[in-house]
Amino acid sequence: MKTTTFGVDLAKRVFQVHWVDMDTGEINRRQLKREQLVTFFAKQAPALIAMEACGSAHYWARRFASFGHQVRLIAPSFVRPFVKRNKTDVADAQAIWEAAQRPEMRFVAVKSEAQQAVLTLHRVRAQLLKMRRMQINQTHGLLYEFGAAVHRGSHSMSDAARMLGELADALPAMVIDTLREQLQRIEALTRDIRAIEHRLAAWLRQDEGATRLAAIPGVGLLTATAAIATIGEASTFRSGREFAAFLGLVPRQSGTGGRVKLLGISKRGDVYLRTLLIHGARAVLSHPKHLSDALQRLLARRPFNVVVVALANKTARTIWALLAHARTYQSGYVAHAA
């Protein structure tokens, strides 16, 4: 007996399900409420359930897997070509069902609760950093209007507090009080950011894979934990190059008539992890005394930013190799052909 494939269009309250009866060939469409969706799939025989990798997809994937179903998550960009004419919930569910039938379709690994929790910390930290940067820039601008030039960066808040004290007699009290409250908000954001980093560090010490990744040059606390949480399962990618392509660290291609032209990096995939890898590579290259001969030769003939991306690509492949083959990092390791 063949396994039935269900295409589910996720939503907050109203879900759309599409499937085809394997015995009769009848096309079925059904709209279900949130509480009805769980009951519906709990009663079904083990089946293949396909969904878009969107909000709450990993939660529902774990929930359906607990019922004995096989779950496949598909990137929304891979589902879009199968949507016919108008975009509706019915059309989306059918498109998901059709995309799941393709033999070469790429699927997204289902994340565990722990991996989603780590990503939650990263997302909150990134937002707090953005808010702190906005507050600092505004404080610098407001002080500059009164002739106080503060150095750039988050470490200049002590200078800002000192200058604010010097201007206390020259400015209205309401301005001084408001700017002091602004400095207090910046300090509170800094404390919150450090608290999140302490939680990530505690999780890294408990996770064996993240600890192995942290040994790679250019991979620190943020990159190691974000990589573990983003990849999910290393077996999702067939090679390190596929993982690098997933992160957008490979050239875009444009070709016709048998001629292929390589362009800049594609910048597809996870922007956050790609940014961390590039920052890590830039930090490694900023210490030329500790660079390998290969990197020094590459720096001699290629622009600095090109070498940064190349090193980030190599770091991404190394991350995949360590996770896929359960290895530890070895400096100067050379892979041998089978």
TrEMBL record:
Q: Which domain of life is it from?
A: Bacteria
Limits of the Transposase IS110-like N-terminal domain = 7-145
Q: Which residues form a coiled coil?
A: 179-206
Transposase IS116/IS110/IS902 C-terminal domain: residues covered: 211-292
One MF annotation (Gene Ontology) recorded for this entry: DNA binding
Protein keywords: Coiled coil
User: A biological process (GO) annotation for this entry?
Assistant: DNA transposition
Q: What is this protein called?
A: Transposase
Q: Which organism is it from?
A: Paraburkholderia tuberum
